[in-house]
Design a protein that fits this description.
Amine oxidase domain-containing protein; binds flavin-adenine dinucleotide; 10 helices; alpha+beta; 4-stranded mixed beta sheet
């Protein structure tokens, strides 16, 4: 059935995979007036960022659980709020129970409450926590503007790279010389080293250090796992969790999805005959 339907139309672009990136690319192409076909092998779109009804009546984030890496610029340009994007603020942001103890660590948006919680385990950590958060947020603030720009292309002539180099210079400048060594360490060291430098208590190190390894097949002792810490703050700044109600093209007997997106229309159906 789909073969015939696809043959009937012609497309400017066909995107294989209806995950977060495929859908974003498709939406931008459609916005630019292109006719786009998205092919998804599952019965539901969203990829690792999917919200899915695993138990009837209950919807879960199956993998990605925070709206963090989706750039605000994309949300704005694709007018996602108009299409149903809603934020659910994540507060408390983490709860770390301790095995064989009734103690636990609860962190949220309120710094003085956080410090009280942390002080149960270490007074020094409670004092250092706001300093650590400030350090990470300085780095995030400096680097965030770079995320919406093209990466530096070293194949280009210096003349063409000057504007990008100037942006990079302006980005790094506010970090100041004093922070450069710490920044280098954060980007290259294992998260365990970063945590040991700032904190004493295992429960806090485990809670914050998780960000170094989440979504990675890496241990906290692997080099480079410190670098996702700024990503945590990008998340925390927004502290959002989303459950996007968006369209579901779900038929239990037909686990394949076909979407046709153009500037003015959006249609989709599931079929077992995509291939
Ligand atoms: C456990 C986990 C937790 C995460 N947590 C977060 C988080 O909290 N916040 C965050 O911002 N990011 C998080 N991420 C990362 C985020 O989920 C990914 O960056 C994002 O989903 C990548 O999107 P994608 O479209 O590139 O790929 P995917 O999401 O993997 O989508 C690929 C899609 O293509 C489909 N596909 C593949 N092959 C074919 C084929 N041959 N034909 C048709 N369809 C095909 C797949 O079924 C899938 O739907 C997490 C990732 C994981 C694994």
């Amino acid at each position: 059935m789909l073969r015939n339907s696809v043959r009937k139309f012609s497309y400017d672009a066909i995107i294989v995979g209806g995950g977060h990136n495929g859908l974003t690319a498709a939406a931008y192409l459609a916005k630019a007036g292109k006719k786009v076909c998205v092919l998804e092998r599952r019965h539901v779109i969203g990829g690792a960022a999917v919200t899915e009804e695993i138990i009837p009546g209950y919807r879960f984030s199956r993998a990605s659980y925070l709206l963090s890496l989706l750039r605000p610029l994309v949300i704005q340009e694709l007018d996602l709020k108009k299409f149903g994007l809603r934020y659910h603020i994540r507060n408390p942001s983490s709860f770390t129970p301790i095995r064989s103890s009734s103690d636990s660590l609860l962190l949220g948006l309120n710094m003085s409450e956080n410090q009280k919680e942390i002080a149960k385990f270490s007074k020094r950590d409670a004092e250092n926590f706001p300093k650590y958060e400030h350090f990470i947020s300085t780095i995030v603030k400096a680097f965030e503007p770079l995320m919406d720009n093209e990466p530096l292309d070293f194949e280009r002539s210096l003349n063409k790279r000057l504007a990008q180099l100037y942006l990079l210079y302006n980005t790094v400048k506010p970090l100041g010389i004093a922070n450069i060594a710490d920044f280098y360490e954060l980007m290259t060291a294992p998260i365990s080293k970063v945590m040991n430098k700032w904190f004493d208590s295992d429960v806090l190190k485990a809670t914050l250090g998780t960000d170094g390894v989440i979504g990675l097949a890496a241990s906290p002792y692997d080099a480079g796992t410190g670098s996702p810490s700024p990503r945590r703050l990008l998340r925390k700044n927004k502290s959002n969790q989303t459950h996007q109600p968006g369209p579901r093209y779900c038929k239990p007997y037909a686990p394949r999805t076909f979407l046709s997106i153009s500037k003015d229309s959006f249609s989709g159906f599931s079929t077992s005959n995509v291939y």
